[in-house]
Specification:
With about 300 residues, this protein is mainly α. The chain has helices spanning about 5-20, 35-45, 55-80, 90-110, 120-145, 155-185, 190, 195-225, 225-240, 250-265, 270-290. It has 2 domains: about 5-190; about 195-295. The chain is built from 11 helices and no strands.
Length: about 300
């Protein structure tokens, strides 16, 4: 076993012992979400069996392994909260995840993206994963978990940790799914992670919010007064901090560019064509989400509250 792997195993064991001093820590190899991590790893390994380029296999396997391991840390963090661990102590896992996620992003940017063996499609996906990691790490560690103090109540800290865990879990899972689909386009999240009910709920929330954004954009375009424009801008920020995380990462950067363009526009007259293009893009996203397989039995109803 390499020194690096020994260090990784030690990190997990130390964090687990700190949070479960009575020896009740769940095994680091316990199920993440059925199927178990071992089965997940086997599935990911199988995807790369037909990749001829050895360097590509090595680079992608490193990324697969890092993402799967960080999901395991999140499982341990969740188990700690369920066993009434002091929430402040749970932050040890997030410190470890932060370090490893930063290292993974650096690896992607400095090693993987620069490798000549990486083709354009794979490079675009890796670039999207790097962007997603940057976005979610900033969201979690500069906002959700920033400034937690010993004086905060356990209930407050528990809530912040739970939300942060959800953001990171979704980020790592989506990164794995998107990367896996490069090698098997038919691969789905349900095949890798047994969390279909959660994905249904997430997709319904995302569909609702995209529809709301479309309506607000079209209203701001048609009316053009300050009140409707402000309402649209406020919901852009709400979406960014909420269900945007359930979009495919390839769509994040386009969304962010549109938001930047809206914010940089100096007059209502200049904003109108931007709103039209943005609304068209949001309608396209809405259509794509509406076609998700997990929503097959959940038809869209624009009369529901919140739409």
């Amino acid at each position: 076993m390499s020194i690096q792997l020994l260090n990784q195993a030690a990190h997990t064991e130390v964090a687990a012992q700190a949070l479960f001093p009575g020896g009740d820590a769940p095994s680091a190899h316990a199920p993440l979400n059925p199927p178990s991590r071992a089965i997940l790893q086997t599935q990911l390994n199988t995807l790369l069996e037909n990749v001829d380029e050895q360097m590509v296999r090595a680079l992608i396997m490193r990324i697969f392994n890092d993402l799967a391991r960080m999901l395991d840390y999140l499982r341990l963090a969740e188990a700690a909260l369920e066993q009434e661990c002091v929430p402040h102590e749970n932050l040890a896992f997030f410190t470890l995840i932060h370090e490893e996620a930063l290292a993974l992003r650096e690896f992607i940017e400095q090693r993987a993206l620069g490798a000549e063996c990486i083709k354009d499609e794979l490079r675009d996906v890796l670039d999207g994963i790097s962007f997603a990691l940057k976005h979610e790490l900033r969201m979690v560690f500069e906002h959700e978990l920033a400034g937690i103090s010993a004086t905060e109540s356990d209930r407050t800290v528990r809530g912040r940790i739970t939300h942060a865990r959800g953001l990171l879990c979704n980020c790592f899972q989506q990164s794995l799914i998107t990367l896996a689909q490069v090698f098997d386009p038919a691969m789905t999240g349900v095949q890798l992670f047994n969390d279909l009910p959660t994905r249904v709920e997430q997709s319904i929330e995302l569909r609702r919010d995209l529809w709301t954004l479309v309506q607000l954009a079209r209203r701001a375009e048609a009316v053009g007064d300050l009140e409707t424009i402000i309402a649209f801008i406020q919901y852009l920020e709400t979406f960014r901090h909420g269900s945007m995380q359930f979009l495919m990462y390839k769509d994040w950067q386009v969304y962010e560019r549109f938001v930047d363009e809206v914010m940089a526009t100096g007059s209502v007259a200049d904003l109108t064509p931007v709103l039209d293009r943005f609304a068209c893009y949001l309608e396209t996203l809405f259509g794509q989400v509406r076609m998700r397989a997990v929503l097959a039995n959940h038809p869209f109803d624009d009369s529901e509250p919140g739409y």
